[in-house]
Design goal:
heterodimer, A: alpha+beta, Immunoglobulin-like, elongated, B: mainly alpha, 3 domains, 25 helices
Chain lengths: 160, 825
């Protein structure tokens, strides 16, 4: 085996090990997780999806709720072609858990510049959380094509 | 030696000269003419798709633009994707290049099933026209849900117009065409190679096509099932993707991407193959790492079935599924990396000639690698979760599809055009085209990476001016128009060079593979004598000896002059080519009318069905050789197996995926049933009886085949009638079962159990019905004394199908009837 080949092999192995350590660190020490199954909307016979969403807690009271100091939960839903609620106001440095679903077709839930990026699938609840450190107005966009006025579907997160 | 090619060129008319006239093109079954038909159609759609892309870019050029309406914009990006994938890249790679080159590369006179080949083309045209039906004013409305058509936006409730109807039916028709092409080419490559052409001596393009056809056979049924469900939802009011009935729209995403990711490789592998062919003559070196190149194609294909989930990270599948799909996706980088390094190693130290074809090949390697690297990036869920549905994704797949596939296709055009038309494409225009394309392609798509990072989502009609997206969008649009200009040059070059270009010799590039050993353009039967293959790069070895094949190439140029062609040892006898047929065209027409009938006038289905039936029967009985063993063809076949039998096996393989998709949908949905009827309604004693009858029919089928094979026509007919009769008893049982359920109130629309049960068992029933009709035709023909020992193949193939249908029933009966469990969601 040539010296360069050996060097390259060791380099690759080291890189791989480094990535695994980084993965373990972010997962266990920093608690960064990929979004997972966060529950379903159960539709009873004869009920519409929208009806089911609006009677399933916590979606019967959508909006922002304080969970503790600096911790908020935003319960939202997407409908063609808007989000409800349309604006969320939180103080800077707060950790917001977004709990969202859709009342009609598949929508997107995307805040550019953050790692908030989910699909809102009818019948499923999507959850993710993010800490907004920098004050400003964050645009919340639908990025999953959802029909004629898809490009107008947005909301805001205002961080003061 | 050198004089021979000349005489050959003048002795026979080439495939374009004889016969002449429109009719000869409508009825042609010559793979080369069908390739031309595909090529012309696909180039037309390339213009359409390109114009659509430029309209999209014109709309996005400035913020708050209202150049075209939002509705039209949505139709444009939907049709741009659908057109480029199904009507441009696939027909060019499969229909045009593969169709033309497979028989030439492996030393055959045509593909395995020439009429099926024509049928694929006419079905393709029917599907392509169907997709564009929305242009008709009174119907009004092109497909507008994206090329991926995510449920449940495609449901009647959210898309009430005909837009999605044409899309569903058009794609179903195109699926038929692709599947049949895949089957045809698979059998051709496996079974029709010239003597001595072992797998490890095949040109790399053949390897690529072999793997592609397997992908087609095993991937398309998943799309078909997804589309059938959507069709049922739209036309029969079922609930496959409706949450209010307990279903989930994610089912569509799974089915679509199980097809969709292999589809990426169905488009990529042929381009890999073209590149591997073009790169060798212009480097004057054999392909580096041939075995590894071949194995990595197989590995890519294998892995491509385990990666569909990486399209769905944002749906929240959970950490386990996410990590699995991330790892399989990253693994694909290994075989792909092997290929890229092998191409580079082929160029390394070669005696390079920078023709236009070679420039596009090098462009492919660079741009495809860039696209591949951003692909590995998306494989990581945390990274992907910031990029999903942003413009980074658009940048990534355009680097793969344009920088990769389209560059490969263009290289193929410049490389093979002399062989196809007998005229060289103009190199000056070609080089201008290449450099403009290279610049404008990067100018159009590279800034999309930036836009993605800046948060621009996909598929938006327009955007606000204060987002920081203005400059790059403007820049991209300008470059898109320049890219359009480069394609204008290409089309001008094609037309001008075909009319006035320099005449090409048989071997203008000093090529290595067999297609260069015959005149340009080739005669209708390709090879005067079927070549004997003794080594990889068969033609090169014949020209320069085996030293030239493996060592450094001898420094001779102008190989054409030194090329002995075919070296026909004996004077050829009359070469018998199959006669033209109009039935493929009628089949395409029938399918078109049947599909149209679903949308506008239900009785058209009957007319379409009648045309389809007529064309199938016509094709069956058109040949005097129907069902006959052809000892000569059998002796020449690579495996010693009849093509028709191999084709049936390949088809059954594809059917397995079809039924697997249906069965898994049933298994998933039976536990999500929202109440009402469930599996307890099933009548086990009755079905056990009909199952017993169906299994017994398999025994009768065995007896029938044995009788026919020993030339006992009377008992052959009796057993065949018996098999068909037992099949009918089974169908009768099913008819009773279905009627009983409907009378009890369980309809296909009732609930999740009803729809999945009826589609699964119903599709099996349709298979039995087709089998019974088939058996009856066989039985009557045998009773008339037409099928004896010599035609026993007809019975054998029918038997294969029949046994398969029985085996599927055993699985269905066990899983759905015997192992029924009832759980309410």
């Amino acid at each position: 085996m040539e010296a360069y080949e050996k060097l390259f092999l060791w380099f690759s192995i080291a890189l791989l090990a480094l990535l695994l350590v980084a993965l373990a660190y972010t997962s266990f020490a920093m608690h960064v997780h990929v979004p997972g199954d966060a529950g379903m909307i159960m539709v009873k016979p004869g009920q519409t999806l929208a009806g089911a969403v609006l009677t399933t807690p916590p979606f019967d009271h959508p909006g922002l709720r304080q969970l503790g100091p600096g911790r908020y939960e935003a319960v939202m839903f997407g409908q063609a072609w808007s989000f409800y609620p349309r604006e969320i106001d939180v103080p800077a440095g707060s950790e917001v858990t977004f709990r969202a679903t859709s009342v009609d077709v598949t929508h997107g839930f995307f805040i550019p510049g953050t790692r908030v990026n989910m699909m809102l699938i009818p019948g499923l609840i999507s959850v993710t959380s993010y800490r907004f450190d920098k004050p400003g107005t964050y645009l919340l966009l639908c990025h999953e094509y959802c029909g004629l006025l898809h490009h107008t579907m947005n909301a805001q997160v205002v961080v003061k | 030696m050198a004089a021979q090619p000349k005489t050959l060129e003048y002795e026979y008319p080439n495939y374009l000269q004889d016969p002449r006239g429109i009719w000869s093109w409508l009825t042609t079954i010559d793979h080369k003419r069908i390739a031309i038909l595909y090529g012309v159609s696909a180039l037309f759609f390339m213009m359409v798709g390109g114009l659509e892309a430029m309209l999209i870019r014109a709309q996005l050029m400035v913020p708050n633009n209202h150049l075209i309406g939002a509705a039209i914009y949505n139709e444009l990006f939907t049709m741009h994707g659908t057109t480029m994938i199904f009507l441009v890249v696939m027909p060019l790679e499969l229909g045009f290049f593969a169709n033309f080159m497979i028989p030439l590369h492996i030393g055959a006179r045509d593909v395995a099933f020439p009429r099926l080949n024509a049928l694929s083309y006419w079905v393709f045209i029917a599907g392509a026209i169907f997709l564009h039906l929305g242009l008709v004013r009174s119907l009004a409305g092109m497909p507008d849900a994206g090329w991926f058509g995510y449920a449940n936006l495609t449901e009647r409730m959210y898309s009430p117009g005909i837009n999605i109807d044409t899309w569903v039916l058009g794609l179903l028709i195109l699926g038929v065409s692709t599947l049949l092409s895949g089957l045809n080419f698979f059998v051709t490559i496996v079974n029709m190679r010239a003597p001595g052409m072992t797998f490890m001596r095949m040109p790399m393009f053949m390897w690529a096509m072999l793997v592609t056809t397997i992908l087609i056979l095993l991937a398309f049924p998943a799309l078909t099932v997804g589309l059938v469900f959507l069709f049922a939802d739209r036309f029969l009011d079922t609930h496959f993707y409706r949450v209010s009935a307990g279903a989930t729209p994610i089912l569509w995403q799974h089915l679509f991407w199980i097809f969709g990711h292999p589809e990426v490789y169905i488009m990529a592998l042929p381009a890999f193959g073209i590149i591997s062919e073009v790169i060798t003559p212009f480097s004057r070196k054999p392909l580096f790492g041939y075995p590894m190149m071949a194995y990595s194609l197989v590995l890519i294909a294998f892995l491509s079935y385990g990666v569909w989930g990486h399209h769905m990270f944002a749906t929240g599948m959970g950490p386990i599924a996410d990590s699995t799909f991330a790892i399989t996706t990253m693994l694909i980088a290994i075989p792909t990396g092997i290929k890229i390094f092998s191409w580079i190693a082929t160029v390394w130290g070669g005696r390079l000639r920078f023709t236009t074809a070679m420039l596009f090949t090098l462009g492919f390697i660079v741009e495809f690698t860039a696209g591949g690297l951003s692909g590995v990036m998306h494989a990581s869920p945390p990274v992907d979760l910031q990029q999903t549905d942003s413009y980074i994704v658009v940048a990534h797949f355009h680097y793969v599809l344009f920088g990769g596939m389209m560059m490969g296709i263009l290289a193929g055009f410049y490389y093979w055009w002399p062989k196809i038309t007998g005229r060289m494409l103009n190199e000056t225009i070609g080089k201008w085209q290449f450099w403009i394309t290279l610049w404008a392609f990067n100018g159009t798509f590279f800034p999309m990476h930036f836009l993605g990072v800046l948060g621009m989502p996909r598929r938006i009609y327009t955007y606000a001016p204060n987002m920081g997206w203005d400059f790059w969008n403007y820049f991209e649009s300008i470059n898109a128009f320049i890219l359009g200009f480069a394609f204008l040059l290409f089309f001008i070059n094609l037309v001008w060079s075909t009319l006035h270009g320099e005449h090409s010799s048989a071997d203008p590039w000093d090529g290595r593979t067999l297609e260069w050993s015959i005149p340009s353009p080739p005669p209708a039967f390709n090879f005067v004598t079927i070549p004997m293959v003794t080594a990889r790069d068969a033609f090169w070895v014949r020209k320069y000896g085996s030293v030239g094949a493996h060592g450094v190439a001898p420094a001779i140029s102008g190989g054409a002059a030194a090329a002995p062609v075919g070296a026909p040892a004996e004077v050829h006898e009359h070469i018998h080519m199959p006669a033209p047929s109009i039935y493929p065209l009628i089949f395409g027409l029938g399918l078109f009318m049947a599909a149209l009938g679903c949308m506008i006038w239900i009785r058209l289905i009957l007319i379409g069905g009648a045309l389809i039936l007529m064309s199938i029967l016509g094709m069956v009985f058109e040949y005097p050789t129907f069902g006959q063993f052809n000892p000569e063809a059998l002796a020449e076949s690579t495996l010693g197996l009849d093509n028709r039998k191999l084709g049936m096996w390949a088809f059954l393989g594809s059917e397995c995926v079809f039924f697997a998709s249906l069965i898994s949908t049933y298994m998933v949905y039976k536990d999500r049933n929202l109440g009402g009827f469930d599996a307890m309604i099933l009548n086990i004693p009755l079905t056990s009886f009909s199952t017993f009858i169906l299994l017994t029919s398999s025994l009768l089928m065995v007896l029938a085949l044995a009788a026919v094979q020993r030339d006992d026509r009377k008992w052959g007919a009796i057993w065949l009638f018996g098999t068909a009769f037992f099949g009918m008893i089974f169908l009768g049982g099913q008819a009773y079962e279905f009627t009983d359920f409907v009378l009890q109130g369980l309809k296909i629309q009732t609930n999740l159990f009803g729809q999945t049960f009826y589609t699964l068992v119903g599709f099996h029933g349709i298979h039995v019905l087709i089998g019974v009709c088939w058996l009856l035709v066989l039985a009557f023909t045998t009773a008339a004394g037409k099928i004896g020992k010599d035609r026993s193949l007809a019975v054998e193939i029918g038997g294969l199908y029949w046994h398969f249908v029985d085996i599927v029933w055993v699985v269905i009966f066990t899983l759905i009837y015997l192992m029924r469990t009832v759980k309410h969601a």
